[in-house]
Amino acid sequence: MNKLIGRVLATEKAPTTMDKFNFWTDANLQLHAFDIVKVEHIDKSFTFGVIENISHITDAQSFLTNFISCDFGDVEIDEPTLRIGMNYAEAKVSFNSNNLYTPVHNNAKVYLASAEEITMALGLDKIQNPLVCGSLKMYEGTKDEVTLPVKLNSKFILGPEGAHLNISGISGLASKTSYAIFLMKAIQDQYLSMTNSDDSVAFVIFNVKGCDLMAIDRENDFVQDMPNAKEETLFEYKNLGLSPEPFKNVKYFIPYYDSNSAKQSTYLPKSDIARYMEDGQLKKYKYVYSSDKESIEMMFSNIDDPAQTMESIISKIIDEDDPDFKGLSTWADFIDKVTENSQKGSGQKGSNDISVLSWRKFKRIVRKAIQDEMFANRVVPERNECRLADELKKIGKNDVVVIDIAKLPEDKQAFVFGDAVRTIYNLKLGEYDAETDVAPPSRIIVFIDELNKYASKDVPHSP
Amino acid sequence: MASRNDGSKPHVKIRDILTEETGGKSYKAHKYSLDTTERPTIDYGNNQIVWKKTAETTKHTKYIDLSRLCKIITQQNDQILSYFLDGSRRVFKVDDRAYYDGSRSMIFPIIAGQIGVGCCRRVDKRMVPEKFKREIVLSMPDIANAGGKPGFFQATTKKINECKELKKIGVEFSAILPYRTSKNEEMKFEDKATACVQDKMIECEKELVAELVREGKLNQDNYLIKDGSLEYRPTQKDKKDKKSYQTFKNNYSWVLGASKNFNPEVCLDVNGKPNPGFIADLPLYHRTPVSCYENPDYLGDVQFAVWYIRLRDQHRTRSPFDGILKIEKILVTDEEVSEGMNSELVDTLSTYLINERNPVCYGSDLRWANHIYPIYLTESFVKSRYLSADSFLHLF
To answer: Which residues of chain A approach chain B closer than 8 Å at the C-beta?
Structure first.
């Protein structure tokens, strides 16, 4: 049975309209913005309204009345009778059960709505391809509190109607990233439960700060939370129809570093790295000249190149028939060749018309970029080493790939990101279809945290 | 002439029923409300009341300072003023009707009144409605009863109430009150009719108090504050039966009347001369000594204890009498009549009343300086239950 909380107010100056109405409630009744209420209407129908604002009024005609009521400004005075006051809420009509949008009548009864009614009033019962995207609390903090799952049409975030999701909010509250992870978890849950569908999904997650995302396959220990947090959280997950387990099929990739060197390329503690390796979940990625020279252009993503000289150099390098660069196999050879080209008097062979100055600029940038252990000569699979592109090619249904770039300098982050995204792009375009072990899922979700740092700031100009 | 049975006229007006029942000719005069906006007034003029000796156990001659006691009682945070009662009426002139008295026809006003009497209780500093009575009455000249038959007006009332239109909106007339048309009094007919409505309202107030007493709601911890004077005239019935007369008086053991308007001329000094200045100069949070007054012609042997308290600083109000409340209490027991009220009780009651000064209804009511908020709320409650003037007048 719905709880009666007030009556509709319609006056000469504040009439009810087809999309708005006001109603009074007890001054102590707790309501919140966006709570839904139900109003009795004509033809036994019910109109639902979303609360937009709540005001408290008293019979005091002016501020002066209240001031005088304290003996003309005595702050200590307590009144034997409380001034009469009431709350009135402004609500926006969201729905009528009989599709009647005649304004609701004066003095009509206003009730709290039940979970089913709220679902109906918000149109949540008619969502196609439902995907849990969160929960909604109504009448929060009262004994009539209602929690209900909110679902959205998964096609809106997984295409074809939409392909990207923005999450914005105040920084530092641990909510934006957490929400993104929650949503991905919901998606994985849903696809794991779908057994006989052609639709499949995989995730590529870039860890850009700390080691926040480097443990998404581990259970939360709730050590730093309130005593009952675990039970409550798991209960909420259950109510939303989600499994309380962490992500499944997770693989971690960290930039290669020598186990003996003091410098580490990740924020992940050594113990965790060892454990992940034991479980076969973690690999160190390397870039090998012979296979990855095509990615050199990624190092120039932030470099202005108005005369396109850098691009010319890169084209020359990846040209299999180039007399200078063909047959090189290591980064050291490559740098040597670049150094050679950047010396005065070089280029006399007429092989190119690129100036020495451009070669020097190129050398400066590349040499700095490849001064890292992940630019290596060869991959040793036995030591859990890999090429990132080779691993990404093999991404399968429901896989979660976490690529750690948190500790890399910005230019190398861009390099890894660019390389990975290009690999995914090529994968989706079917470039690797002929290779074995390549069975790309129908959708790949790429999650890049702090995207505003990496995304282009250029605003497209209209001609 | 329109008739109730006239099927061609779907809306039967009360005026038509009256024409059928009492005859006379309706002039369909302009219908309007006789009430004026309530504003602070000083009630000048003759008053037959006799101002007597002091009526409290301590024979005070000066003002009594209650400010210290006010603070103490505020801190105690308890309450003995629990019930608040207010009666009000709205009178409307609804018709002018000519009656032929044998030699010539005379024109008389027909007055309709809405009476509302309400009582609110204070629970945890909040006001909740306790009781409400609404009566709708008509006041007509006595010669409307052409045959002079007893019970004529009751029968007419019944006929009016049979009207479908009234039943549809759930309105019922409780009585037709005849006013005297004899020319020996210098009073306008309209005023006479209004007085009848006023008397009916007072009856309702008395009944409501009696109900509260019967239900055992009033006692020394639960006083009733009634808006206005307690100068009720005991009815003939009251006086005839000694027991019921005493019951009437006993009903008022825990009732105080608080008047916003009063005649300051009533206050007499030691020489028996009116001394309104004594009240006007009353300092803030003080009370006057309690006097006793009686009016044997009007009130029989009922004696009242009367005193004044000042709620608001004279500098803050427009007239020296604004911010002063006149308090009345009927002296009930023989001891009270002979010795007067207990001075301590007077102090306590006055203090509680002084503490009622906040909140104020400044801006909503011109009488804010004399008004106490619970009474103001009760009054608002009663007024909110009236039929609107337009729809009420439309019945006629």
So the answer is: 59-62, 64-66, 68-72, 77-84
Taking a C-beta distance cutoff of 8 angstroms, is the pair A428, A416 a contact? no
Cβ–Cβ below 8 Å for A81 and B377: yes
Rounded to the nearest angstrom, the minimum Cα separation between B125 and chain A is 4
Q: How far is residue B25's CA from residue B15's CA, in Å, rounded to a whole number? A: 10
Sort out which chain A residues have CB atoms less than 8 A from B355's CB and list them: 80
To which residue do tokens 């006013």 refer?
B179
Residue A113 CB contacts under 8 Å (≥ 6 apart), including other chains: A2, A36, A37, A38, A48, A121, A138, A146
Nearest residue to A418 (alpha-carbon basis) of A384, A459, A369, A378: A369
- Minimal Cα distance from A79: which residue of B? B358
pTM: 0.71
Characterize A307-326 residue by residue with b for buried, 16 or more Cβ atoms within 10 angstroms of its Cβ, and e for exposed.
eebbebbbebbeeeebebbe
- pLDDT, one tens digit for every residue, chain B (396 residues): 444 444 445 567 788 888 888 888 888 778 888 776 666 666 655 555 556 677 888 888 889 999 999 999 988 888 999 999 999 999 999 888 888 877 788 888 999 999 999 999 999 888 999 999 999 999 999 888 878 888 889 999 998 898 888 888 888 999 999 988 877 667 788 888 998 999 899 999 999 999 999 999 999 999 999 998 888 777 777 777 778 778 888 889 999 999 988 877 777 766 667 778 888 889 999 999 898 887 777 667 788 899 999 999 988 888 888 899 999 999 888 888 888 899 999 999 999 999 999 889 988 888 899 999 999 999 999 999 988 888 888 888
Q: In a mutagenesis test of the A interface, which of B79, B120, B358, B375 is the best target, namely the one with the most A β-carbons within 10 Å?
A: B358
Residue B184, exposed/middle/buried by CB under 10 A (0-12, 13-18, 19+)? Answer: exposed
Q: Which of these, B367, B319, B311, lies nearest to B66 by C-alpha position?
A: B311
Please name the member of B127, B364, B380 whose beta carbon is closest to the beta carbon of A61: B364
Cα distance from B116 to chain A (closest Cα, Å)?
21
